[in-house]
């Protein structure tokens, strides 16, 4: 019986990589995700999401049940291992995610595209709140680097290095937008937008 291809996902890839390390039960996977700091880059907030991902990987033949552990202290636990097919797919997903930028639709650009619904004076304090959150996130990431043991290979923290670079770039851009809002270089009004729409319609 053939199985349907499994759609790649950040969590699916990470689970496969962890199972390359050693066979694990779902709780062990969750613990390793936290120990290795993967919650910075994959959504592991809901345990149900992890279980659904494991079910998809198993249904697609990428992982299989290794054994079932029974212990008086814990409920029965199913231990999973990666299959040969899973090893091949892991390599394929990893190469694709590294090489090809994916068309993603994050929340912030969508909100920016609709920001003209608000008055400029109302937008400034809202974006100032975002800037404060970004500063906190950047400080938390920088703190992680200060706690890094001496001699730790750079590759083990490469994703946090990327996140820090992205946060720093967004923070710099956002401060520029806030400066333009405060100085009036970035402004709009209902009348301005209506006039632009009318001019565009006439040009067409």
Characterization of this structure:
The structure is a single chain. The chain has 204 residues and is mainly alpha-helical. The chain has helices spanning 10-21, 26-35, 47-59, 84-99, 107-113, 120-146, 158-183, 190-203, and strands at residues 63-71, 74-82. The chain is built from 8 helices and 2 strands, in the order αααββααααα. Strands 1-2 form a two-stranded antiparallel sheet. The protein is elongated, with a radius of gyration of 23 Å. The mean pLDDT is 90.
Please specify the SSE layout and strand pairing:
Layout: H1 10-21, H2 26-35, H3 47-59, E1 63-71, E2 74-82, H4 84-99, H5 107-113, H6 120-146, H7 158-183, H8 190-203
Antiparallel strand pairs: 1-2
Helix pairs in contact: 1-3, 1-4, 6-7
In short:
The protein is mainly alpha-helical.
Task: Note the main attributes of this structure.
mainly alpha, two-stranded antiparallel ribbon, 204 residues, 8 helices, 2 strands, single chain
* Helix fraction bin: 55-70%
What do the pLDDT scores average to?
90
Enumerate how many helices there are, as a single number.
Answer: 8
Which structural class is indicated by helix and strand composition? mainly alpha
Low-confidence stretches: none
Radius of gyration: 23 Å
- Shape from CA axes? elongated
Q: How many DSSP E strands? A: 2
Strand order of the largest sheet: 1-2
SSE topology string: HHHEEHHHHH
Residue share in β-strands? 5-15%
* Separation, N- and C-terminal Cα atoms: 57 Å
Major beta sheet summary: 2 strands, antiparallel
